[in-house]
């Protein structure tokens, strides 16, 4: 990439960053947490207040709306619209309720809040149902139902099914309504949803009452009444009692109807439910008239008039309060619009200032870039020279490293040559000499040139040489096999006690000759999974060395124990011991060769092979020895 191209890219980056900064100046700010908490609290407070003071609830909602607009808290504003629509619907402002619901729906769709969209659609469906638009209501209910099923909201599923059941009841589709109510009841019981359960019982009671199945209807109303009693819902209790009163009146059981209506009146009075008080008093009056008790009917007629008067006064007070709230909100909206216009003008001025400042910043940035490019050009040649010097230094370091590697390879080759020479020496001398001796002795014996006693001694000597030669040959063959890649025996389970017993029998002749006692103290139950030939070679070499360096009448002990995840196998002798220098030679994998206590000769190859084999098996050879105090060779292997 040329310097000119880099300059263009840098200038474009600066311009884009400045433009982004300009747009950010006019961007919406995220509302602070304190404002969010305050708006949410006002919404929840209004939701609780709407049952007993509509004007106060609406005033709190309007305050929440103003705060949400000012702080751009979209979710809080949508929730406010949802609750406002519920209040408008409650006091009969159906059209305003619908328009408010749709404003909430639009905001929730922008926020992609699926659950809230379903709740708003559910409220719009209820408004449609009350307006007689059943098909539209059913469609909206089903849309919400699909959402609740998708998120497995059992309570709302039960509520929707109850709502759809009431529509089916109003359309005289009683069988479908019954199925919906029973589905809602089952879901509510399964999920311990008390409100849905008592609502289902109440709806089923109305359904059976329409069918004139009064016994079933009474049972359902009583179940709903029991749930309301547990919930201490006086309003719900009064509703059930009014339905029971109506049902008793249909059956011409006026006394039961009057008694139930009076109970409903008492419960409605305790929660100041004037609409239920009016219905209860009306039922009492109608029942007394049908019984012909005109005086009692007149007395309750007076109560009904008082209720209607109180209701009218309350409605008038609510209406006045509501109108005051609306007026205050309209005034606030007017002031807010003026403030918004003022803010817009301020934003325009700020945007102009930011734009001018941005262009100035761009010019300064371009000049700074040009100065930077000139500075970079001056540094370029210096950097290039420095890089070339670094390359020369790296090449020099690489050459030094290469020389070191060549030196290391030479050392390895020298070690290999020494190993080769030693092996050739062992094969030419330590293997060939016993064979030549054997041939000479056998010739003398066969020709009868030695007495029988001397022949027996020579044959015993040959047997001893045979054991040593066989051991050396096994060591050489196994070492050569280990040097060949891919040559590895299968691992099997080996009894260490039996292995040592076999090796003891194999060395019985040298042990007997030097009168050495070999004690096999290994646990007969102890086993190890390893290469059988490898462990045999190692143990045989250690026992052979112990015999070689132990004086006549001495002893050798074979012991074992486990510690953690490792097995420790020890060959201990009472021999002449080793100096620390000798131990270091063995540990450094150097040839260590010396004459035994009875002038036995060795190749010096055994201990090196043992250490190599144990290391490849993941183990370690531990040597403990002092001159004149014997030696202990311990094999540490993973269990």
Write the layout of secondary structure elements.
Elements: H1 3-25, H2 33-49, H3 54-71, H4 74-90, H5 94-111, H6 114-130, H7 134-151, H8 154-170, H9 174-190, H10 194-210, H11 214-231, H12 234-250, H13 254-270, H14 274-291, H15 294-446, H16 452-483, E1 491-495, H17 496-506, H18 508-513, E2 517-520, E3 527-531, H19 532-548, E4 555-563, E5 566-573, H20 580-587, H21 606-616, E6 620-625, E7 631-638
Helix pairs in contact: 1-15, 2-3, 2-4, 3-4, 3-15, 4-5, 5-6, 6-7, 7-8, 8-9, 8-10, 9-10, 10-11, 11-12, 12-13, 12-14, 13-14, 14-15, 15-16, 16-19, 17-19, 19-21
Keywords: Kinase, Membrane, Phosphoprotein, Signal, TPR repeat, Transferase, Transmembrane, Transmembrane helix
Pfam families: HATPase_c, TPR_12
Catalytic activity: ATP + protein L-histidine = ADP + protein N-phospho-L-histidine
Structural write-up:
By secondary structure, the protein is of the alpha+beta class. Among the domains are: 30-146, Serine Threonine Protein Phosphatase 5, Tetratricopeptide repeat, CATH 1.25.40; 406-488, Orthogonal Bundle (Helix Hairpins), CATH 1.10.287; 489-638, Histidine kinase-like ATPase, C-terminal domain (Heat Shock Protein 90, 2-Layer Sandwich). The chain is 76% helix and 7% strand. It is built from 21 helices and seven strands. The chain has helices at 3-25, 33-49, 54-71, 74-90, 94-111, 114-130, 134-151, 154-170, 174-190, 194-210, 214-231, 234-250, 254-270, 274-291, 294-446, 452-483, 496-506, 508-513, 532-548, 580-587, 606-616, and strands at 491-495, 517-520, 527-531, 555-563, 566-573, 620-625, 631-638. The chain has a five-stranded mixed sheet. The chain has a two-stranded antiparallel ribbon with strand order 1-3. The two termini are 63 Å apart.
